[in-house]
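Worked example 2:
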Amino acid sequence: MKAFFDIDTQLDFMAPGGALYGPGAEHLIPAVAALNRYAGERGIPLISTTDAHPENAAEFRVWPPHCVAGTFGQQKPCATLLATRAVVPYDPAWSGAAQVGAASQIVMEKNDLDFFSNPHVPAVLSALEVTECIVYGVFIDYCVKFAIMGLLRSGRQVSLVTDASASISKEAGDLVVKDFVAAGGRLITSDRV
């Protein structure tokens, strides 16, 4: 089954003044919103990843504090949200992975660059029977890289929507894209989805 993956489109990354704002990232919001709506209207599972850091996250030794759980910056832009959502917390004790399929949008929280660090990712992907992945979001040279390469390693078909994704560094992003294509990934644009 096909699933869409909206990676880390959060205010701290996409809104001017956000803690780790990527210049120009706000211009992706309409494209991300359109893809998310497209998935919702067609019954295609939408998995949205979000950083949900505690105030003392180990990541803050490397990066400035950002996307602290419950803060304004941790939220997704309203336009990217679908009406029915299920949140899959970064909590090994949580046991609702089998029930998330009823939601239009599954929000996978994480406390790491890699969304596979959420221990429930394999169960959710299995419950949804995901074989084809359409991926977009921020930033190609960071969290999107972990998503596309991890999904490829899991044996799934993966496409990166280039006009709904952004990099912090063009050079680093281009290198990720090159490695992704060499590993079997595919590049598409929103109008080809």
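The helical segments are 11-14, 29-42, 121-127, 143-153, 170-182. The chain has five helices and seven strands.
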